[in-house]
User: Fold these one by one.
Assistant:
Number 1:
Amino acid sequence: MNDKAMFIRPLVERALQPLPLRTLRPTGWLRNQLRLQAEGLSGHLDEFWPDIADSQWIGGTADGWERGPYWLDGVLPLAFLLDDERLKGKARHWIDYILSHQHHDGWLGPIEAPHFGSIETRLDPWPTFILLKAMAQWQEATGDVRIVPAMQRALHRIDALLDEKPLYEWAKMRWPDLALSIQWLHERTGEAWLLDLARKVQAQGYDWQAHCANFRYREKQPQWMLENHVVNHAMALKEPAIRFRLSGNQGERVNAARFIETLDTYHGQATGIFTGDESLAGKNPSQGTELCAVVEYMFSLEMLLAAFGEVAFADRLECIAFNALPATFKPDMWAHQYDQQANQVICRISEERIYTNNTADANIFGVAPNFGCCTANMHQGWPKFAAHLWMRGPGEAVTALAYAPCTVVFEVKGRPVRIDVRTNYPFEETIECVVLVEGGHAHFPLRLRIPGWTKGAEVTVGKDAAQAAEAGTFYVIEREWHGSTTVRLHLPMPVTIRTGYNSAVSVVRGPLIYVLKIGEDWRQVRGELPHADWEVYPTSPWNYALQIDRDHPEKSIAFALSSVGDCPFSPQGAPVRANVQGRRVPMWTVARNAAAPPPPSPVASDEPLEDLTLIPYGCTNLRVTELPSLGPAPTMRLQA
């Protein structure tokens, strides 16, 4: 060992350890959702979309930049979570080709990869960042002995390249994704040069910590820049987790929370995401958010959870996963939007539009509306969420971070343990975890996340009396587990009101946002079935103000639960509905192909009082999330 290696600070342990892909199996509605994805665009894109089907990454002539690795990074975990041999075969084809065509100097993938807006197309390291993440997942799922040596060679080549040509453009902004894979490899080889490389990457990368401390992008941005790009911000949110592992600075968890708070303050939406139609776009609920930002924000939160183990990060992850993620897909997952809007009352091709950068078709549902990056990158959202529902740690503990039906299998001191999670959460308040130790016993702590939004949560172990659980903490059950034990978690979901743009109201209950249901008329405008492009037009009024008690909203809203079917994230399949009353506000209309900003609340209207239906945001394609409220002493009077 050389002298320099002896003084390298070791990689700091994470609070929690993500589980390998084969550890968890989705069940119930979550499995159905992943199956929809496998049978939709994700599982078939490589059969007809040239940028994947004819990718340069597998010897073709189409895109040789980020799109192939993006698709692989999402389809690969989808394949193993579903144990789908067809999808695993597709992933293997890509992995085999890429590994067998690694260049003699270690470079992975195309040497020349022209792409939109770049000043440099030769040996661009950015797409390799994505590929390395996919390769790490493949190794964990299969134990493929080729992966570690291939990654070592590739990173040696990148190390040398960075001495000649420091990080630039996308790679400079997205350096945490490369550092993540470097850290993964270091955990398996212990080689000190990898930590040197990680620090070199950080030094050459964009300083997101300083960016947040001196945040300049506080309004809707009129011009695109890498520094105000929405997806760059979503990816950068994992930076504190990367820095923490290199430095051990506990202040990084504060930096992570501050970064999230900053984006909420200036660009936040009810769904937990922030706006950005390419550039950060302010708080208007009609402005829109790019799908790539949704799935990348989720992955950043998953990395923050592993590093710091904070309940608040899991609360945010569930909010985005159960609301913003499903709402940006056609329910059968054969089409997606580039931009989704919180107040989304029409989806059509229109040259007159509210977006800063995006084009006329940015909010229609299709194969590749506006630009193909989301078509390639959207696949990671559901699979990586499923893969991070549970993690190991601290110590021998196993920790539930987010809730959905699944089975988790792991070992405690060589003893196999299985946990079956039986639930219709987030549509219901109860979660059952059946802990099974076959043929013996095992001692370990079971840690259950108690969301920050709940009140009066209780945990019941077997036939014992229910115990109160404090919101915003992990409830720990440390015991000797024998045979089969049922742990029942009850998470009451109080109704709250979020105040938004122009004092508009959003209805929140537990992890779900409830929005005005709008009738839909789907019109095919391009392509061929099943992978066609669609406009969606409203068939019912949407411009309402709610009659609601902001301080006691439960007095104004009645919730009704129905069964959870095969496609719960759809208007027809919504398992929960809320009944509320409101009046039309005729002067609130469409402007620039979007709902105009909600008029300042409270408002008055001479229209008749009507019964209205709200359903979960993730079940909608058209919706109004932020609505004005009616008031007894209106400051603004609107009438026909």
Number 2:
Amino acid sequence: MLGDRQAGSAGRDSFDRRPCALVAAVAPWLGVLAVLVSARHLSAQTHRFVAVGDSRGSNNGVNSLILTEIAQAIVAENAEFVLFPGDLVTGSSNPNTLTSQLTNWRDHMQPVYDAGIGVYPCRGNHDAGSIAVWNNIFSGPYALPGNGPAGEVDLTYSVTHGSIFFVAMDVYVTNGRVNQTWLNGQFAANTQAHVFTFTHEPAFKCDHTDTLDDFPNNRNNFWNSIAAEGSRAYFCGHDHFYDHLRADDGDGDPDNDVHQYIVGTAGAPLYADGVYDGFNGPWTPVRVHHERQFGYVLVEINGPTATLTWKHRTSPGVYEATSDVFTYLVSLPCAADKDCDDGNPCTDDDCIADVCAFTNNTLSCEDATFCNGAETCADGACLAGEPPDCDDGIACTNDSCNEATDSCNNVADDDNCYNWVYCDGEETCDAVIGCLAGTAIDCDDGVGCTDDECNESADACTNVANNAHCDDGTYCNGAETCDAVLGCRAGAAIDCDDGVACTDDSCNETTVSCDHVVVDANCDDGAFCNGVETCDGILGCQAGTNPCPAGTTCDEDNDACVQPVPTVSAWGLMILALLLLVTGKVYFGRHRAQTAV
């Protein structure tokens, strides 16, 4: 692993632990402080930035999930810039692999770049495989300040932002050590009140053994210089957790101690706790807060006041403030009151005994804007005023403050009353009464036999013809129907014709059915001799039979049966004549005989 090293005993023993040596080491920096801070100035503006590092992971070098969330959080914080103290990626000695990983890191941070937020990383041991790759990745629109020392350009650099001055220090060009000579020159030229520094490695060991205290003299000179510069916070990573310590310098005044923030919390695998068992020199590390969780430190600058808040991950994508909040106030030497002007109307700025004193006042800090209320000072800050209460108590009016007229507008808006129910009509807003119910939709189409109703799902009326509304209760005149336009229409009379001509067909209202009565008379053809015709209810008229018995004839004219007159043939007549002749002869012969007697 790049940057892993063991401190030799000779290196540690070379630092003189005697108190007089400590005074000698610190004394030059006290003089620098007296000279420099007198030329400092404070910005009346507020500033916000984020410090977080160590995002390496298994997704092409980064922890994609956490780094994405951190980038979104930075944007949501409205930060002006972010300090990223190293181990952006898992790293590689292969330039192509390192290029791919750093490009991937940059892509994940693109929302931050797109928001116009400055991104300021320094190298970690995992990023240090190739300076050429680093400089190529952070070039063009991603370029870092090129004001670093020879051999460390784009690796070590300084930035002035309002009343903030911060320095990124590379500790891998000269392994484990900062370029102190260059840093001294940067501090000598600094005129800003708030000073921050960051490297990848902790100055005071917590977990990793390869830290700045591997080279005690260099580390101590570095720590003394940032303390003398008036810096109160140093950011680093390397250890994958959050750890906040105060390096107690033993003078009994904790307010001038420098705090170390380990913020290796952007996605690298989280470590267990560590202990401050490295070479701590003349300082005593005092733990302020420790947490094994992802998150970041938000730094807020307001005039001479700086507030550092640790925000940790409470659920996916959610980062919330913790109880670890550190606030400090810069103290500046002065020659006159004008040297102490912090641009804050809520402080009385006085030069007392050659030191600036900032006393909170309760003056008005009105911004001449009506709609945000009257601003007042409290606790050294201009508190927002209470905006005019434009609520008229009418829920459906749009209540707003009109800056042009210094008054409230209360505009009735019917949309605020709409209940998303179509059929009850359109609700309206009365600026005095409030929401008024609408008039229910009238779906009557004027046709008496339709079922008229409002269809909520279709936001329309439906008018359905209903034949039942036209039924007059009479069967025989047929079923009445409903025409959706014309209304009730008469039915067609029931057709009782059974197709049998001799039945009398009629509609029976009582039985609600047809009657078919067989009537033989309907078959009578008026003729006697062909018999009496009858009606069959299915087959119709059936022919009658001859009423006259055999041997008789039917007299149609007289409606009677008669015996027939015998008729004989010529032979019969001849035979009959012979019979008559014979019979006559016999008769007459007997008659004469009897007469003769």
Number 3:
Amino acid sequence: MARQTSSLPKPLFHLLVAMTAVVVPLVVSTAMLDPGVHPKFLAWAVLQALLWLAIAIVSARGRDTGAAGFFRSPLFLFAALYVIGALLSGLAAFNRQDWLYATLRTALFVLHTGAFVVIMIRMKEGVKPLAYAVAGAGLLVAIIGLLQWRGGILLLGADLVPPYGTMVNENLFATFLFLSLPLTLYGLVRLRAGRLFFAFAALVMIAAVIPTTTRTAWTALTLGTALTGVIAVIADRRLGAQRVRWIRMRKKHAALIVLALVLAGSAGFFFVVSDRLDDIEERTVIWRTTVDLAKKHPLIGVGTGNWVQHTNIENLRTRTTFSNWIRPHNDVLWVSSETGVLGLVGYLGMLLAALWLAWRVLRDGRDPARKTLALAVLYALVGYILIANGSFPRERIESTGYLAMYLALAFLTYRWEFPREREAGRSRAPRAAFAVFAALVAAFAAVVGYYRTAGEVHLQNAHSMMVHKQWAPAVSEIDEAQNPFYTSHPNGLPLEYMRGNAYYELNEYRAAIDDFNAAAKRNPKQIMTTWWLARSHLKIGEDKKAIAEFEQCLQWWPNNIFTLPGLAIAYFREGNYHEAFRYLARYRKIYDPEVHREGYDDLWRTLQQKVGTRADSIIAKDEEIRRGRRRRAHTDSAAGVSGNRTQPGR
């Protein structure tokens, strides 16, 4: 590639590369509840604010970055639509703080893509140091992960482990390594001076992905490799049907890497996947729930960052496991349910536009280096799409940063191969204004990131104290955790819910009730909040209110093993022995003494004496009532009736 003089300072390029490939992926944050999301977001936002501020200064001085075409391209227009969909979804959001945070992450992703284009548009030689940085980061993380596999050497000790250098977070670890692989393979094929380094890095990364048993990463390695190869062959116009006998790789090292990808990934997949079919079945339930959510809110969704607020009840009702499903494990469905049709079109449009740009370079390009880069980008995007359909890479800052990098490289490779004449006489004011706006957005995101990081630190302290039954100090830490930008635990439970639990253990039931009521207003579809509220009412003798809350729990989750005894006790106190017997009989039918602590034998004997010969008829009537409820629930579900929470007993 011909070397051209950059119109931007070289330090900006190195800061961009470091931010994407080194700093953000390796932010250490093992003390956090949600591994690394908030500290990475904070680092990401600060670095982007610095980048865009520098770009604004350069633009104001009249130096043309040559990136104006990007901001008029379909790629950017779809990205803007993605942000608009996220913004509009706030009209339906329960949790405004999480909506704001998730929307800012979407905006930073688009700004990251733009910064890449603006800084690299005049720096074609920048692909070389970028490939070295990406391969180096992937190699470092892979080595740490392999050394930690199955209790191996902990290089940095148990208390200081990079979140991706551990086999505990296999999905995160494997996804990051896969996204590091395409540029590593590009370096192996095109950069002769570092061929041994790139070959070693690629082999170590593949070796680290295989034992993770991460099915999405295996699929990306195997099926992604096959699809990319097929696309490359189809795109090559020089290959006619009569000439295709045996396609040889031009580089022997590349051929060996591809063979290792296909064989090792396939062997690992078939060796392990048979033991994890239950996970697949559970995910299909979550996917169906997400599809139903998208159908009920097709235009603007339920609010970015608010999927978990709407699905707790459905997740519990499935009774697949007690797993904490706080993401749908499918990014396409996730975007559709949270941002509606606008966000979905924007999200898919970005990916399809980038694929089309890479395809054009492969089909019509002439420069071998650029075609190789386009093939690497195509491999990354195909693999990312495969992963996104079974996992949640958009949740992870480094995965989002790498996607932004590959989207930008798709546009850059196309522009380098098919350059356009620069439009003369365009005002520099719009360029500078956009850069200033981007810097301000990133700076505001950094403020939000700081508060969320601080809140998460205090929340982690509160968790530790509650584990050790230090309830009063836990209340103080939860008070410190709550701020205008952080009001919920990562699993969607409001912080008032946690504080209510602490007050309950301190026997301060009135304070607990106040907090549980506040939590119910913040997230009206959370069954655990209602259950603890019912228990608190039961503790202070407010049996009618307890009954109303327990009944609401049963509407959301019939035959909940923890709710039925509470109802039996409350009705017994009210003197309604028939209802008390009905609920306790249902409880004892599903009660397992090896799993649950008690069968309430004394209460059961007392109720049997109270109802006498009417016991069988009460049980039969209860079964009839439950069958009727199941039929109504099925009819409501078919009709698309919303499951919004009523608030009895308030």
